[in-house]
TrEMBL record:
DNA damage listed as a keyword: yes
GO terms, biological process: DNA repair; DNA replication; error-prone translesion synthesis
Name listed for the protein in its UniProt record: DNA polymerase kappa
Matching Pfam families: IMS (PF00817), IMS_C (PF11799)
Lineage: Eukaryota, Metazoa, Spiralia, Gnathifera, Rotifera
CDD domains for this protein: 7tm_classA_rhodopsin-like, PolY_Pol_IV_kappa
Length: 912
DNA sequence: GGGCCGGGCCGAT
DNA sequence: TGACTATCGGCCCGGCCC
């Protein structure tokens, strides 16, 4: 037997008995030796070995007499356990064989003959038996699996499919025990005792099933437990075309162990006889026991405990060194005792979400992520009508060190603001306190100490018979008082925050609620406003007002619930669902369905349910085609801009002042194109992986975006100004000089480079989950208006005004006696400006959706995926603008034509 | 001494 | 080249308070 280390292959899975473990372990070590994960595992193992050393030295201090006494005490305990042994029942554990992999192989038979695994590149969920021969197993990262088995086919998880099959399986099992307990999608326990008693009274017909689907041939099963389970497995196969293994025994622990004996597609029944049971369990290696993981195994192995029988032999020492609960567990194991009741927990104990991302230390990003996770968790709380009292923040550093920080609240709540505040306070405290804290790679928010929103029920029942208006006002009134208490409680802790974080926090609150309330921060922290939900005048600081609105919105939810209640369901339905999903000592199926083994966030129904500050997003099928379209536009634009720059530089047409301005425009377009390409690639990457993830790259691109859009628009303004100068002040040579133009160009560049900095550093730019990009969220705010004016409206309006002024000027000029060439010249420049106007109108037309969005967002919330939609136009505008530049810039056009012709001539010549 | 709180660790799927 | 999940339950410990 291989010695337990933290990185060895876990060979306890069925189908992995005959592996060359040494070879596989060597390959795994090789694949992961340089990773931080490996180093962390080494640290963990060393720490555990240190603890083992302490244990061993403690053991040395015990006298033989002490050990003998402990052994006698253990024996007495074993005797007691023996007396409570219940051999009267017969449990069955059904385990679907490589469930996810089997579903995939059924859907795609080609996969049946290749080693294959289900999951993501990050983590595998399960593997088929062919892959297991290579050591590929569940909970193994994809890259190691590929190292072990280069031909491995990895199929992404599709929980929808598995859920359909799982429900078929569970339905069949429920016919044998309606109180069955499921452990996830692929496992279930059933107590067959009652069914077996009734079974003898069943007619043969009731025990007869078709041999094959749609076949007339039938098969009749007998009345024994063995045959009953064969019947269950046969019916499962008929329903799903997937095999299941089963184990039968007098308790659940033994039944589970039995289902593993004849895997796959087999079953095993353990006789309900003490000697048989002891003989069976004592010969098993400890790692087969549910509840003994790597760490416990390592500790037990250090005491020369390899099998369950060794546990028995070392019972004296175990009694002396283990915690009572651990000792109790081990004694139950070595006596073959197990649970004989399928218990159902009353209430889920905690709810939370966590996500892994590329390591980052950027506190802004971390706080924003934390907020998203809190929102997601609170949404779940609210939708299930549950309150919580304890919030926990979990973080994992890039070195795989995990920290959890939790805080108990003064009262039960489901307020987004309270929970978010609390968890962000915990995060800030960590970030502040530990300056050496490495970058983080995971963050999680969890709430616990849950209770049902019980007070809702009588209120709802009572008021549902009255007018809804009364309900809301009554409820809201009560809630305001509640929340004020909570707000007071929170104030004390706010003192711990440093100023930087406070400013970020306030900014966020402003952003979030700018559509709801106006707060005059300049005068004081206190202001009056009207609540958009209950229409009451509110007096207080931002926090209190926000919290009030938060609660009012919950009140709004209550009203909705009342309406729904009258129509269809009771408000308890959701909660009951949750209870029903929760099984004894097993993960609720709904939760298990969510489990994933890849790096992507939770996916259900092929969609991703994520929260940002305002919306829930689903992955849409049109994302990818649109991303590709955008990429085509961006790449075309970048290539065009590069070609233009190349031509201008190599043909030396840049020596003219006007061309310097065109170079400036092309350069701006090039940067803007690169920005759009980066954004599109970023979005495409996230869409493809169906993840929401961002790092400072996203912020940097946003910065470059705002800068380059400014550069682009001002470059056209400079061109217009230059034309204007040429006409209005043809003798003002200084203004037409290269020096002056370069000065203007430099000036606009400096303005455009500097202006987005405050946007970045004051957290105005946010990662918008739905749109997968970083932008200033649309909405009525000074920043939005200033931004729109600074980089768009001002240059565009100026160009239009210059054009109008020039039209008037040329008209005036033509009325007076003017040198012909000067008039001609002016008309030509006017034509130039007209072209610039046509170019600008492209920008205006295709930028219009963006501007409309901004304006609409002043009055109501922006539609979902708004930026995705407007960015299609912006990407397209870039290509059109570059084509327009070519069209209106004569020297560029002629140069390009000459080159194309030249090359064509060359080709002809070569061919000839 | 018992209960609560906050932190850490383990295990299962 | 580097690359190792998400969610939940449960247990234990030390520190603190009553």
């Amino acid at each position: 037997m291989s010695r337990t280390t933290f990185l060895n292959v876990d060979d306890t899975k069925a189908g992995m008995e005959d592996l060359d473990k040494e070879k596989i372990n060597k390959l795994i070590q090789e694949a992961s030796k340089n990773s931080k994960f490996f180093k962390q595992q080494q640290r963990r193992e060393e720490e555990n070995r240190r603890r083992i050393e302490v244990k061993l030295s403690k053991i040395k201090s015990f006298s033989t007499f002490q050990i003998e006494q402990a052994e006698k005490s253990a024996d007495r305990y074993l005797n007691q356990l023996d007396k409570t042994r219940d051999l009267s029942r017969i449990f069955c554990h059904i385990d679907m064989d490589a469930f996810y992999a089997s579903v995939e192989m059924r859907e795609n038979p080609a996969l049946q003959h290749v080693p294959m695994a289900v999951g993501g590149e990050g983590m595998l969920s399960t593997s088929n038996y062919l892959a297991r021969q290579f050591g590929v197993r569940a909970a193994m990262p994809g890259f190691i699996a590929r190292h072990l088995c280069p031909n491995l086919v990895i199929v992404p998880c599709d929980f929808n499919k598995y859920r359909v099959d799982s429900s078929k399986v569970m339905k069949i099992i429920s016919e044998y025990d309606e109180n069955y307990g499921s452990c996830g999608l692929d496992e279930a326990f059933a107590d067959l005792t009652n069914h077996l008693q009734k079974r003898s009274t069943l007619s043969e017909e009731q025990r007869t099933f078709p041999k094959e689907e749609n076949s007339t041939e039938t098969i009749t099963f007998g009345i024994t437990a063995e045959e009953t389970v064969q019947e269950i497995r046969h019916r499962i196969y008929l329903a799903t075309r997937i095999t299941a293994s089963a184990g039968m025994a007098c308790n659940m622990r033994l039944a589970k162990l039995c289902s593993d004996i004849n895997k796959p597609n087999g079953q095993y029944q353990l006789e309900s006889n003490v000697n048989v049971i002891l003989n069976f369990i004592r010969n098993l290696p400890i790692r087969k026991i549910k509840g003994i993981g790597k760490v416990t195994a390592l500790h037990l192995e250090s005491l020369q405990i390899q099998t369950v029988n060794d546990i028995y032999l070392k019972r004296g020492i175990l009694k002396l060194i283990e915690y009572p609960s651990t000792f109790d567990f081990l004694m139950r194991v070595c006596n073959g005792c197990g649970s004989t009741t399928i218990e159902h927990d009353d209430l889920q104990k905690s709810i939370g979400h966590e996500t892994t991302f590329n390591g980052t230390s950027d506190s802004l990003q971390l706080i924003s992520l934390c907020r998203d996770l809190a929102k997601k968790t609170v949404d779940e709380l609210i939708s299930d009508r549950i309150l919580c009292k304890r919030v926990t923040l979990k973080i994992k550093t890039v070195n795989f060190e995990i920290l959890t920080r939790s805080k108990t609240l003064s009262s039960y709540t489901d307020s987004l603001n309270i929970i978010t505040d609390k968890v962000i306070t915990l995060l800030k405290h960590e970030l502040d306190q530990d300056l050496e804290l490495p970058a983080l790679r995971l963050m999680g928010v969890r709430v616990s100490d849950l209770k049902m929103k019980s007070s809702d029920l009588p209120i709802l029942q009572f008021f549902s018979k009255k007018s809804t208006t009364t309900t809301i006002n009554e409820n809201t009134h009560d809630m305001i008082e509640d929340i004020d208490d909570d707000a007071d409680d929170d104030e004390g802790e706010e003192e711990n925050l440093n100023e930087e974080f406070l400013s970020i926090e306030n900014q966020y609150n402003e952003d979030c609620n700018s559509k709801l309330i106006h707060i005059d921060d300049e005068n004081s922290n206190t202001s009056t406003t009207t609540c958009p939900v209950c229409q009451k005048m509110l007096l207080g600081d931002n926090d209190k007002i926000n919290k009030h609105i938060d609660l009012c919105l919950n009140g709004e939810m209550i009203r909705t619930t009342i309406k729904e209640q009258d129509q269809q369901t009771s408000p308890q339905t959701n909660y009951n669902k949750r209870i029903n999903l929760t099984q004894s000592k097993v993960t609720p199926p709904a939760k298990r369905q969510k489990r994933k083994f890849n790096t992507t966030p939770q996916r259900t129904n092929g969609t991703m349910t994520l929260q940002n500050n305002s919306t829930t997003i689903d992955f849409q099928s049109w994302f990818i085609p649109i991303d590709i379209l955008n990429m085509i536009c961006c790449v075309s634009a970048v290539i065009l801009a590069l070609i233009f720059l190349f031509i201008i530089i190599f043909d030396k047409v840049y020596r003219k002042v006007g061309m310097i301005l065109v170079v400036n425009s092309c350069l701006a377009e090039f940067i803007f194109g690169i920005y759009l390409l980066a954004v599109t690639l970023f979005t495409f990457h996230n869409d493809l992986k169906q993840i929401y993830f961002y790092d400072s790259f996203c912020l940097i691109t946003a910065y470059i975006g705002y800068m380059s859009i400014g550069l682009q628009n001002y470059s056209y303004l400079l061109q217009a100004i230059y034309r204007y100068i040429l006409i209005v002040n043809p003798l003002g040579l200084f203004y037409q000089s290269v020096k002056f133009q370069v000065f203007l160009i430099s000036f606009t560049w400096i303005c455009c480079i500097i202006y987005p900095f405050p946007l970045v550093f004051t957290g105005q730019i946010k990662y918008l989950v739905d749109d997968q990009l970083c932008q200033i969220p649309p909405g009525f705010s000074f920043v939005t208006i200033f931004n729109a004016f600074y980089i768009y409206l001002f240059p565009m309006i100026s160009i239009v005004l210059i054009y109008l002024k020039m039209v008037r000027y040329v008209r005036e000029m033509s009325k007076h006696v003017t040198p012909v060439n000067r008039l001609f010249h002016a008309q030509r420049e006017l034509k130039m400006i007209r072209r610039i106007i046509s170019l600008v109108s492209i920008l205006i037309a295709l930028g219009l959706p963006y501007q409309t969005l901004i304006i609409v967002s002043f009055f109501k919330s922006a539609p979902k995926y708004h930026f995705r939609i407007v960015f299609i136009f912006i990407n397209a505008s870039l290509v059109f603008v570059l084509i327009a530049i070519l069209e209106i810039t004569e020297p560029l056009k002629t140069s390009l034509i000459r080159r194309i012709n030249g090359r064509a001539t060359n080709v002809v010549r070569t061919v000839a």
